[in-house]
Amino acid sequence: MTEDILVAGETLIDFLPGRPGPLADVSGFDRRPGGAPANVAVALAKLERPPLFWTRVGTDPFGRYLEGVLESHDLPDRFLERDPDAKTTLAFVTHDAAGDRAFTFYRDDTADTRMEPGRVPDETLADLEWVHAGGVALSSGRSREATLDLLARAAAADCTVSFDPNARAELWPDEETFRTVCREALAHVDVWKATVEELEALGFGDGEVRPEEIARDALAFSDGKGDGSECGGEGPHTVLVTRGGDGAVAVASERAPWNATGESPAIVDHRGYPAEVVDTTGAGDAFLAGSIAALFEGRPLESSLAFANAVAATATTAAGAMAALPTREAVDSMLEGR
């Protein structure tokens, strides 16, 4: 097996509610594995692209459970770190009547906040083609420095670097810190996946919900055209904007290898696929894994966006971020209308 992709970030426990409603009104929860990077890593494995996964869990029972989950999905444990001095992060999820969710975290000095810079050596990065990280690891602890260090070295090693801000306001001290740190990360990023709300929180767009225009504004970040938004490196050449059940928009500059149109930028709008939604937890992570897999394989932007939307739609049909992650065969069936 050739390991060409590395995913980095948190693995945690999601406690899913027995019924919709505020956390104070829910009496029963179901334990499920989660964490956005862990969801991406498992989704890639299900899509026959198992990545290396750099993560850190406690040696408590929750951490041992998560180790078993990652092993069951045949993810290599080369960069699975076990912290004997910290607990594993817990996240309690609540759902509204439409299936949309909110999170309450227990993450004070937990294992995933204690990742150390340099744990993925330069020799490993030199052999990789793609590195992905998420924004939760940037929110606190040494993991912020460790993640920024990884992204910078991955970019220097000519890896394609992808990033998902995965905004969780309760994990950040304030909006300005979120914006400043994520923009620092974006200096090293090629492919950027976000929601409209996340792009607006990072200072893009004008408050109007127009995904295509906001994506174009975000892409201008790499050219130093955004008001005060200049980045240290070349910055993203591809922005993927997810819209829930309405699909996604992709905008790619002429620097993107999958921009075969010659347009600057190339714009693709895909309306997604219908699904009987049970739980949207992890749908964005499934979309991102589908995007990475498709773009990594050299598919055109339009085909990649369709593939990613099919992965995301399937992932909403069962409770839990990992429970409904589809196989490649299932995705192909949806794409073919079966």
Largest sheet, in brief, is: 9 strands, mixed
Q: In order across it, which strands form the biggest sheet?
A: 5-4-1-8-9-10-11-12-13
Q: What is the molecular shape? A: globular
- Backbone CA Rg: 18 Å
Any idea of the CATH topology?
Answer: UDP-N-acetylmuramoyl-L-alanine:D-glutamate ligase
User: Hey, roughly how much beta strand do the residues contain?
Assistant: 15-25%
The CATH superfamily turns out to be Ribokinase
Task: Tell me the span between the first and last alpha carbons.
Answer: 30 Å
- Helix-strand string: EEEHEHEEEHEHEHEHHEEEHHH
What does this structure look like?
- This protein is an alpha/beta fold and 338 residues long.
- It has a single domain (5-336), classed as Ribokinase (UDP-N-acetylmuramoyl-L-alanine:D-glutamate ligase), CATH 3.40.1190.
- Helix content is 32%, strand content 20%.
- The protein has helices at 36-46, 61-72, 122-127, 142-156, 175-186, 196-201, 211-219, 283-296, 301-315, 328-335; strands spanning 5-8, 12-17, 29-34, 52-58, 80-83, 90-95, 101-106, 130-134, 160-164, 191-195, 238-242, 248-252, 266-270.
- The strands form 2 sheets. It has a 9-stranded mixed β-sheet with strand order 5-4-1-8-9-10-11-12-13, with helices on both faces. The chain has a 4-stranded mixed β-sheet with strand order 3-2-6-7.
- Helix 5 (175-186) links the parallel strand 9 (160-164) and strand 10 (191-195).
- Helix 1 packs across helix 8, helix 8 packs antiparallel against helix 9 (301-315) and helix 9 packs across helix 10.
- The longest helix is centred in the middle third of the chain and has 15 residues, at 142-156.
- The chain is globular, with a radius of gyration of 18 Å.
- The relative contact order is 0.13.
